[in-house]
Amino acid sequence: MLDLDRIAALRHAPVPPARHIIDGKRCAASDGATVDVISPVDGLPFATMAWGDKADAEAAIAAARSAFDDGRWSGLPPARRKAVLLKWAELIEQEALDLAVLGVRNNGTEIGMALKAEPLSAVATIRYYAEALDKLYGEIAPTEPGVLGLVHREPVGVVGAIVPWNFPLMIGAWKLAPALAAGNSVVLKPAETASLTLVRIAELALDAGLPPGVLNVVSGPGATVGEAIALSNEVDVLVFTGSGRTGRRLLEYAARSNMKRVYLELGGKSPNIVFADAPDLKEAVKVSANGIFRNSGQVCIAGSRLLVERSIHDAFVAELATFAQTMAVGDPLDPATAAGAVNSLTQLEQTLRFVEEARAAGRRIVTGGHRMHEETGGYYMAPTIITGVTPEDRLAQEEVFGPVLAVIPFDTEDEAVAIANGTDYGLAAAVWTSNLSRAHRMVQRIRAGLVHVNTYGGSDGTVPLGGVKQSGNGHDKSLHAFDKYLDLKTAWIKL
Ligand code: NAD
Fold first, then answer.
1. How far is ligand 1, taken at its centre, from the CA of residue 174, in Å?
2. What atom of ligand 1 comes closest to residue 472's alpha carbon?
3. Is the per-residue pLDDT at 458 higher than 90?
4. Which of 241, 270, 351, 423 to mutate to test the pocket of ligand 1 (most atoms within 8 A of CB)?
């Protein structure tokens, strides 16, 4: 149950200025720069934060390097690292609602989802990796006689983590928790429009006993702070969630510097495929709508292309439109809200441009397509369903990252597979069918890192998340995530 009085008290509460966290200290930007933080809830400034540049990033990298090299964290017994991480999780949990409200004011996600998907998800993630870290064993290889082949798993060193504005705590924790659990030091760069909660949990990490320099946070522009991290020869691994455009740059930066490993979690144009034999079409309507419209479509795995078998297309779209019209869009701090604010005015305007282009091309806007509650100053958009979309349309090929659903009919399973696989992306998908063989066939044929069957958007920390094609490489979540943060070292010992 959400504590409504607490939410009301926090809604306009003053927020302490957010600083960088470098070498265990809260510090101002080296040149003193700050920026106002604008809330998408009402378009007004509500906080300030340090606005870093290259010098701040370099100071953070130097702190992380020293912390790693002197073993103050990497050299601790695993049980000690585990105790600190579990304490960190506990402190975040104690502040969960405050963190959720701060996050909502910062990025506009509806509070119910924000609480679960942000601080509480981060708590679960940190606990998962804390519990796992002292259960990682090396190997003895089945070598020829007369030698002993040992395979050690060692932390990689300094991890640069660059994260986006949707779900900063959830995605941040997906990187931080396994990286720190494995013994690495980290320099984290939050997104420009969603730094506040990550700065706060880094402060809590210090309170939990994480040694100085092990987790550093520098807020600021991608083009300066992010670039400095990505170009640094002292950063051993770069982990990133964000757009393909930036991901491409990071690969270039790695090539131009120390060829650091780069793991990318990028966008998607995920197909949600509904066959006429779906077990429960009403459920499919509701879940499909939530799969694209919650958090105003700003979800990497959003089911943004709806592929519907032609025989049920019109009825399904009609029900979907009715459902979408009942979704409460607006104040994200109201627990009744189903879809909160779009993160920024830029993002809202970009999303509206997609709609205008589709309209101009003669596609049908079945519902939505416009800004809402402009009088509040906030950035709200009506859930939007567009039919008549062709698989080649920009709307069917490019990620919108807003509450816009492109609907495409299909006649056969083969056609559905061809359309589903016909983009550069391969992040998520769903198949709705009662036919078990078809469900498994589709899972095998769809090129995506995550395929749902008869649901959309579900998963938990026990399963990996990662894309194929231009949706990225490497995986967050599950024990597989450790692979990014641990190197294998072989010892070949002649006996
Ligand atoms: P973005 O690429 O613009 O920014 C992401 C981060 O990269 C930010 O911190 C930004 O400051 C930084 N950055 C930007 N330019 C940089 C540069 N030149 N060098 C270094 N860093 C730089 O993405 P966004 O708009 O914040 O996030 C939305 C995107 O993230 C969408 O494409 C979405 O699909 C994707 N996303 C993917 C996942 C996933 O798990 N696959 C999850 C959430 C979001």
1. 15
2. 41
3. no
4. 241
Longest dimension (CA), the chain: 79
> Which atom of ligand 1 lies at the shortest distance from residue 190's CA?
9
Percent of all residues in the chain with a pLDDT value above 70, rounded to a whole number: 100
* Structure confidence at residue 377 (pLDDT): 98
Which secondary structure element, helix H or strand E, spans residue 89, and what is its range?
helix 78-94
Write out residues with Cβ below 6 Å of ligand 1. 162-166, 171, 189, 191-192, 222-223, 226-227, 230, 241-243, 246, 249, 265-268, 300, 399, 401, 427, 467, 472
**Tens of pLDDT along 317-366?**
999 999 999 999 999 999 999 999 999 999 999 999 999 999 999 999 99
Whether the predicted pLDDT of 470 surpasses 80: yes
Ranges of beta strands (E only) in 109-202 are 139-141, 147-155, 158-162, 185-189
Catalytic residue among 192, 227, 300, 319: 300
Q: What are phi and psi of 341, to 5 degrees?
A: -90, 155
Asked whether residue 204 carries a pLDDT value surpassing 80, the answer given is: yes
- Considering the candidates 110, 192, 234, 265, report the single residue annotated as catalytic: 265
* Domains of the chain by start residue, with CATH: 4-266+472-494 (3.40.605.10), 271-460 (3.40.309.10)
E strand residue ranges, 204-294: 215-217, 237-241, 261-265, 271-274
Residues whose CB is less than 8 angstroms from the CB of residue 12 and which lie 6 or more positions away in sequence, other chains included: 46
The pLDDT score that the predictor gives to residue 81 is 98
Of the candidates 339, 331, 357, 267, which has an alpha carbon nearest to the alpha carbon of residue 304?
Answer: 267
In this prediction, residue 1 has a pLDDT band, given cuts at 50, 70 and 90, of confident
User: 300 an active-site residue?
Assistant: yes
* d(CA 277, ligand 1 centre) in Å: 38
Output the residue whose Cα is nearest ligand 1's atom 28. Answer: 242
Encode pLDDT of 121-169 as tens digits: 999 999 999 999 999 999 999 999 999 999 999 999 999 999 999 999 9
Instruction: Say whether 131 is catalytic.
Output: no
